[in-house]
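REQUEST FORM: STRUCTURE PREDICTION
Request ID: SP-0412
Submitted by: Lab K.M.
Chain count: 1
Length (residues): 358
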Amino acid sequence: MNRIAMIPGRFRRRVAAAALIVLVAIATAVAIAFAFGFEFSGLAGNLRRYARAGATAPAKLTLGVPAVPSFANVILAHELGYFKEEGLEVAIKWYPTGAAACADMLAGKIDIALTADTPIALMALKGKRFDVLATTFESGDFLKMVARRDRGIEKPSDLAGRKLGSAFGTTAEFTQDSILAINRIAPASVIRVNLAPARAVEALLAAEVDAVTIWAPYTRELIERLGDAAIIIGDNTISLTTINVVAPEGTARRQPEEMRRMLAAIVRATRLIHTDTDRSIGAIARVLGLSASTVRADMRSADFVVVLNQSLIILLEDQARWAIKRGIVEAGEVPNFLEFIHADALAAVQPDAVSVIR
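STATUS: Completed
RESULT:
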């Protein structure tokens, strides 16, 4: 016999009435939460928080990010809650270089790596497979070679026979070789020293090396601390540097919506950099523990974007040829970098940001 039918009718009517009151109360609470933007735990908070994610729990992503201002739009998207508002639960893991972030991405330790272009070219030459989803930064002034004038370096030709430091496998190494090539300095005539960014600062200050090629904010620190003893070799016409969003192979296909929402948050942060620079600089300075003046100076010459341009393909091809010629990797030919470009997520956010020729 139906157990519900055994309950007296009058009691059943009271239970139904009570249940109706509860449902009305919940519905009212949810309506108030949406109307007034309340942020609290429970049903209403979850509905508002995950509405964009299709009423599901937020997708979790760990992003590997070097702790320098050039990654400002990605850092801002996290700091100001833009990822969260897109229905993503994002954690940032800090790295000394994009190459280190890429290594952990390939090892499955993080979901997304933010990196300059050289590690991308080297990974492809080594047969690794991955998805390049967007470029978030472009600059011709990202890297500098800082040399010591008090060690007898007054002009590029003085670099011959000297100890030159850079982080191997990064854009710094490529830029250093570009400076040597442009100034017709034989690569075999210099002594190369592999130095992590922070260690490069210490090494040049202690005169353990004669020059280092490094990026901001380390360049600014060296120039300020060395004073008149510092000399800059090269200029912003030597090489273009890009920073890119890279994911394990197949991510763009398996998680298209998560990738779209991630890029949408970065697009929003990029717009803020252009429309409210002071707020952006203040947020980045707090996160990285730098002065606002340092962040402002480092961001001034940068172009924060969210694009996929044909110029990235050309840049990667140039760096692949350089790596093959230098013998950095054992590879016979330049990869087809179009195979690594996955533009669907970015095209869904802003179609005019994709100019890769297929």
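NOTES: The longest strand covers residues 130-139.
Reviewed by: T.R.
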